Structures are given as structure tokens and as C-alpha cells.
Amino acid sequence: MSTTMCGAGAPARETLKPKVAEAEANTILAAIIRSFTVLVAALQEIFDESAYRRFLDRTHQQSSPHAYAGFRRENEQAKSRRPRCC
Amino acid sequence: MPKFLRILLWIAVSLLGALALATIALHRGEQINALWLVVAAVSTYAVGYRFYSSFIAAKVLALDPLRATPAERLDNGRDFVPTNKWVVFGHHFAAIAGPGPLVGPVLAAQFGYLPGTLWIIAGAVLGGCVQDFVILLFSVRRDGKSLTEMAKSEIGRLGGVVAYVAVLGIIVILLAVVALVVVNALKSSPWGAFTIAMTMPIAVLMGIYLRRIRPGKVLETSAIGFVLVLAAIFGGQWVSETPSWAAIFTLTAPTLSILIIVYGFAASALPVWLLLAPRDYLSTFVKLGTISLLAVGIVVLRPSLHMPPLTRFADGDGPVFAGKIFPFAFITIACGAISGFHALISSGTTPKLIRREPEARLVGYGAMMAESMVAIMAMIAASVLQPGVYFAVNSPAGIVGQAPEAAATTISSWGFQVTAAQMATLAHAVGEQTLFNRTGGAPAFAVGMAQIFSSTLGGHAVMALWYHFAIMFEALFILTIIDAGTRVGRFMLQDALGHIWKPLGRTSWYPSILFTSAVIVAAWGNFLWQGIKDPLGGINSLWPLFGICNQLLATVALCVATNIILKTACAKTRRLRYALVTLFPLCWLVAVTFTASWHKILDPNPRVGFLSHARQLAAAGANPRLIFNDRLDAAVTGVLVVMVAMILIESSLECMRIISGSKSAATKESPFVMTRLAMEEQS
Among B507, B560, B561, B602, whose Cα sits 20 to 30 Å from the Cα of B649? Predict the structure, then answer.
């Protein structure tokens, strides 16, 4: 009886193992993707790409040389007053 | 993680930190590995962040996750934007990381690696991180107000005026001293001068690409610019080896100074955004890349430190700058330990991006820890050099002599062996004509960095490329600071002059732009000129002056913070002892800056005291201009100290009035508004 139970349970455990491993791998992959996304977002903020996107949203424009010139004019006015650290 | 495992983990981190600190403090006679410094710093930062910043966040500042920040309440998609905490962290770190944490530790390495390292670690955890964190939070609670505005509203009108003068003073001195660092790095260096000159057409190309071909694609454009800069570094090698071209790009210190002064004026007064904005991006790109590369390099290559933990120059007779460890090590290393300038950034753009109050801890305290780590890396870069080489590069000709043999003999007589032939070989290896008397910190840092990387990546053959990469990196972002700083100074001056005569305050009126730009450039240009003509090498006078200005600004920031904490404590918790978190670093900085100022003005040693140096020059019948320079430095130091003393008195009186109950303990916080973000996140 007990042998039958063990035998019945064993395949179930074996099929569970790869699923657990897969779930762990997915969690790690998700964490890596999340970290990479945050890194890219930080770089986009530092390099004003996000600010440009917000400008386009705010002014309802498509990206173009004209729109970018407008963004630079607005951005530089604020940026030139920001102190730079030593 | 179960609680007991967490406790065990933190005990292990603390013990590891203690072991590393004990190793770097007690090890004598043998070289130690640079990794000990990294472990000591990282463990201390981890413990400081986990426990001290958490205490400040919970008890002293009582961060409220339900209180809406100005980024949420005033969200306009432009200045006020609720932003992911890691994005704000990166943004804030990029804004506070300048040349200071790279240059200061290199200069302070003349005392040995120990004093500077201990000050960087302790100063950051107990002072710098705390200052950045509390000022950021107080600015968040005041709709993103600047330090000057907070000083005015919390301490009084005098507080605002002193903060304003200190900021303007520090900008002027900062620009002069970093310009001097660039001049010393590029003089008689055709390779370096060519590479930096090439960044201008590269930036214009980037500007055209960014505006016309791929609008807004800054990261892509910066990557292209970076590749072009690398090509310029290779081109520089060819220039330095071609006599006709080398002659064109071999520039003297006065010529370089004039070029930088003209550049600063043009950058401030003319609409040259096609050049400046792309170069600003390029500089940030190179800065972040190089700092990451250096961090990886130190951890992977684990170089040994050749500098002893303490040198004989602890007695105050150092060749790089004169003065004893106390107070001079503590003003030489400002950024990296505690820097008043950070208070301007923490009360500038960053508070307008913070999404939730608790995130101020990661951004304010955490980003300063990262900056402090950069300072540790700079200390390592300086300490991997043979001490003889370090002193040969960093000692001015006025101390060790102009001739290589004389300089080598003098340095060897101090117990740090070096020969003229050894220095000639090293100069040849890095593609320079000479490495003697290259004061300012940047060349020594570049040699150290080149030495770390060339030990594995490319070997000795590419040492020159690494050296010039490091020089390019430092000069590029220093020049960016010069053009940005001159403009900020110009705007501040226009704001002030606008109160006297309205048209001068109009930022678009060209006569005002030209006039104020000329005043700011003349101010820092005068100090720069003084630096290159100084018989003691310039850095000896200007870097301590810059450190004093920076730390006096930190004193103002901590005064404001202590005042606000006391008012809050009196009004709400009655736990006045919480004010100790800012009062302790404030007392330390007052002791350091006032002692340093006293020495710089009145010390009888002519290498330390400005006035005694002026007297010595007068007795020797020197150029009256040099004598005037010393008296001017003494006057600037004196005025700043008196002003900060006034704000200290004003602030102390205000505190006593509040504690005694003779004045209401009301702070000027914005009214509480419930956040919507918390509910959105929960749903």
C-alpha cells in the first residue's frame, strides 16, 4: 500500500520540480528585466529623453526638429539656472 | 528572511566592516590590498544606511508615506514630475558627482591613505549623507524651495543673504580651482589639448545630429559622440608624435588660462547651445561610464596600495598643500565626505521629482553614499602610485625645484625614492613630455587609473591611452562645470542687481548679459590667473579656499536643518535630542572651517597663512600683484567666516527663543495633503 502511494506520489513530485525551477528562473529573469528597465529609465531621465517625451505629450506634438527646438528652448531656460556640483 | 537570520547577517556585515577598518588603520610596514578600503567603506555605508538613516527617517524626520509630495500636488509635466525612486537616485547622483570627489582625495593622499579614507567614510555616514537627506526632505515639505529661500524663511533675512553670498563665493572659487586643475593637466600636453579641442567639433556634430536627424535621441547621440571622442584620443597620439602638429597643441599655462577664460565668457554670454548642450550630455555619458569602469576595475583587479597609511607630512609641511591633518584633511576632502554644494542640488531639481516622502531616504542618503564611494576610488587611484611618483607629480616647482634631477633628489630626501630617469620613463609611457610638477590632482589620478587598468587590460602598451582617456574625462566635465557654473553665477548676479536697477535683472537684455557674464568671468578668472602665477603652485592657496567655502555652505545648510528639527521637536515631539543628528556634524564643521580659516589668514608659516606669505613676499620685494593676491585671499576667507559666524549667532538665538518658548515653533512647511499615489498603489 505504502509502496503504491510512494509510487503514485513520485511522478507528481518529479513533474513539480522542473516547474519550481522554471518559476525561480522566471523570477530571476523578471528581476533582471525590471532592473534593466529602471536603469534605462534612469538614463533617459538623466539625458532628458523622458523630459522631451513629456514635452511632446504636454504640447500635443510629434517628434520633429521643430518640436525638439521648442523643447530645448524651454529646457535650457530652466537648466541654465541649475547649479552643477563640484 | 527570518528575523534571526537578518540579525546574523547584520552582525556579520558589522564585523566585516570593523575588521576592514582595523586592517587599514593598524596595518603598518606592508602594502595592503585596495579591496580592504572598499570592504570597509561598503560595510560601513550598509550599516549606516540600514540603521542610522532608518532612525533619522522614522524618528527625526517622521517620513510620512501618506503625505503628498510637491511632485504629485504640483505635477506640471515639466519641473514637478513624480518619478521612480531609482530614476531620481540616478538623476541626483549624476548631478552631485563632480570633480571634487576625484581631486580632493588625491590631494589629501599626501597625508597617507588613512586620514582621508577614515574621513570619507565617517564624514559621509554621519555628515554628508545626513545633510543631503534632511535638506532634501525639508525642501520636499516646502514645495521644492531652495536652500537660500529656506534659510531666509526659517532663520531670517540674514540667513538668506549669507546663503546667497556663500553660494556665489563658492561658485567663483570652484570655477577658478577646477579651471586650474584643467590648466595643470593640459599644459605642455599636445595629446590632451588636442583631444579636448576635438570635443568641440564633435559636440557641434552631435548637436546637428540631435536637432536635425534624430531629434531627442540623446543616449544614441551621446554613444556616437563617445566613439568619436575615443577616435580623438587615438588622434591625439598621432598629433603628439608629429612635431609640426605637436607644436601647435603644446600650450603654456597662461595661454590655456586665457583660452578657458574666453571660453567661459562665450559660453555664458553667447547663444552657443549647439555646442554646449551636446557636450554636457557627452560629459555626463563619459562621467558615468568611467566611474562604473573604475569601480569594476578596482574590484576585479584588486590593486595593492603603495602609499603608506600615514606619511611624515601629517606634521603640516606637505608639498602638495601646507597644513596639518586637522583641519586641512577635512576641508581638502569636501565632496565625498560632506559638501555644502550638495545642499543646493538637494533643494533644486531633486525635491521636485520625489514621488513619496520615504523615497527621500534612498535618494538623499543613498546617492551621497555612492558619491562617497567615488571618493574612495580616487583615494585608491592615488595610493596605488609609488609615493615617490605621487609626490613628483603633485609637488610644485616652487617646493621641489624645476629641474627633474633636483626634484627627484628633494623627494628622495623625504624618504620617497624616485629618480629622474624613472619619471622620464613613466612620462614616456603615458605619452607626456614630463610628469614633474603636474599639480592639481588630475594628472596623478590619471596616472593611477592608467596603472590600474594597464596592469591587465592591454598591458603597458596602452598605458598612454588610459592616461589620456582619464585626462579627457576629467577635463571634459570640468569644462562643462565651467560653462554651466558661469551661467548660474551670471543669473544669480542678475537677480541681485535687478533689485538695484530693474533692467539689469532682465535675463534676456543683452547689455546685462554681457556685463554680468564679464563680472563673473573676471572674478573666477582673477583667481585662476593668481593660481598659475602663484610661486607655491596655486593649488596650495586655492583648494583650501574652495574647501573652506564649500564647508561654510554646509555649515549654513546644517544650521537651517538644525533649526527646523528643533522647531518641529518643540511643536510636536518635544524630543530636542533629535537635533543632535545635524548639530553634531554642524559643530564639527564649525571647528574645522573656523580653525582652517584662522590658519589660512593668520598662521605665521608663510606656506599656510596668506598674510604671512604676503609679508614674506613684500620683504623679498616681490611683484605687488602677488602680495595683493594673498591679501585678497585672506579678505575673502575673513568675509565668509564673519558672515557664517553671523548666521550661527542668529540661528542659535532663534533656537534659544524657540526652546524657551518666547517664540512660536512654527515651521514654514506646506500644509498636509493626502497622497493619491498610496491608494493607487494599493488598489
Answer: B602
How many CB atoms sit inside 10 A of residue B558's CB? 29
Q: Is B348 on the interface with A (CB under 8 A)?
A: yes
Cell numbers that stand for B575 in this block: 524630543
pLDDT tens-digit profile of B2-12? 889 999 999 99
Cα nearest neighbour of A71 on chain B:
B216
pLDDT surpassing 70 at residue A11: no
Does B269 reach chain A within 8 Å, measured CB to CB? no
Residue-wise pLDDT tens digits, B283-333: 888 888 888 888 998 999 899 999 999 999 999 999 999 999 999 999 999
Instruction: Inspect the interface and report whether the beta carbons of B335 and A86 lie closer than 8 Å.
Output: yes
Kindly state the percentage of chain B with pLDDT values over 70: 99
Name the B residues in 511-570 with CB < 8 Å from any A CB: 546, 550
- How much is the pTM? 0.91
Q: Domain spans of chain A?
A: 1-42, 48-86
Q: Whole-angstrom Cα distance, residue B330 to residue B539? A: 16
Min Cα–Cα distance to chain A from B211, Å: 5
Write down all domains in chain B, each with its CATH number in brackets: 70-188+251-354+361-561+597-645 (1.20.1740)
